[in-house]
Every structure is written in C-alpha cells, then in structure tokens.
C-alpha cells in the first residue's frame, strides 16, 4: 500500500513539474523572440514647448512641456518645406502615473 502511494506521488509530481522544462512549457523564453523597437528616436527638450492635440498652430494646446522633458518620436508630419510637426509620447511610468495624464500629442519642430 505504501509502495503504491509512493509510486503515485512520484508520478503526479513528475506530471506536474516535468512540462515546465519542456519547450512548450512556457518557462523558457528567449529575449530575442520579443519584438523590441530598435529604431526608437528620443529627444530632450532644450526649451519650453507646447504639446498640441493635432498638427496646427491654432489647435488646442494640451500642456506646456518643461525644459529637459524626454519625448519619444512616434511619427512626423511635413506640412510644408519649412513646417514639420512630430507626434510624440512623453516618457512616463504607466503604473505610478495618473491614468488620465496626457501622454501623446504634436510638437512643432
């Protein structure tokens, strides 16, 4: 009886633990499989700049960004040869910051 109990315990333990080490077990993840953007462009503001809701001067001003604010460039928009707008995202901690905080907008370059 004890012998059968020991065999069943070993079998159940193996059945629960062994699949973790198999390739389909999910515990083995290679960091190269994750798609990290390698061409992220970031800028640091050298002067106070306004963040707009869309790429026009008379658009709603969402907020004023302070000197030293780090921005990630998402895309650019050329209105003319002399006027370029950039869609940016503010660097933030998504877990600690206010979820209603404005993080994206347009900046005139």
Briefly characterize the structure.
The protein is an alpha+beta fold. The chain is 18% helix and 31% strand. The N and C termini lie far apart (80 Å).
Can you walk me through this structure?
With 109 residues, the chain is an alpha+beta fold. 18% of the residues lie in helices and 31% in strands. It has a four-stranded antiparallel sheet with strand order 1-4-5-6, with no helix packed on it. A two-stranded antiparallel ribbon has the order 2-3. The protein is rod-shaped and about 85 Å long. Mean pLDDT is 78; it is low at 30-36.
The class by helix and strand makeup works out as: alpha+beta
The percent range for helix content is 10-25%
Which strand order does the major sheet show? 1-4-5-6
Could you give the distance between the termini? 80 Å
Number of strands: 6
Sheet with the most strands, sense and barrel status: 4 strands, antiparallel
Shape: rod-shaped
User: Which value, in Å, is the CA radius of gyration?
Assistant: 26 Å
Regions with little confidence, pLDDT below 50 for 5+ residues: 30-36
Arithmetic mean pLDDT: 78
Number of helices: 1
Order of helical and strand elements: HEEEEEE
Strand content: 25-35%
């Amino acid at each position: 009886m004890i012998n059968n109990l020991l065999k069943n315990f070993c079998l159940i333990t193996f059945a629960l633990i062994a699949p973790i080490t198999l390739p389909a077990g999910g515990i083995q993840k290679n960091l190269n499989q994750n798609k990290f953007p390698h061409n992220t462009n970031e800028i640091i503001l050298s002067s106070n700049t306004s963040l707009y809701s869309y790429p026009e001067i008379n658009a709603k001003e969402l907020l004023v960004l302070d000197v030293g604010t780090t921005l990630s460039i998402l895309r650019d928009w050329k209105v003319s040869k002399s006027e370029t707008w950039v869609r940016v995202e503010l660097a933030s901690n998504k877990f600690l910051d206010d979820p209603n905080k404005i993080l994206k907008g347009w900046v005139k370059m």
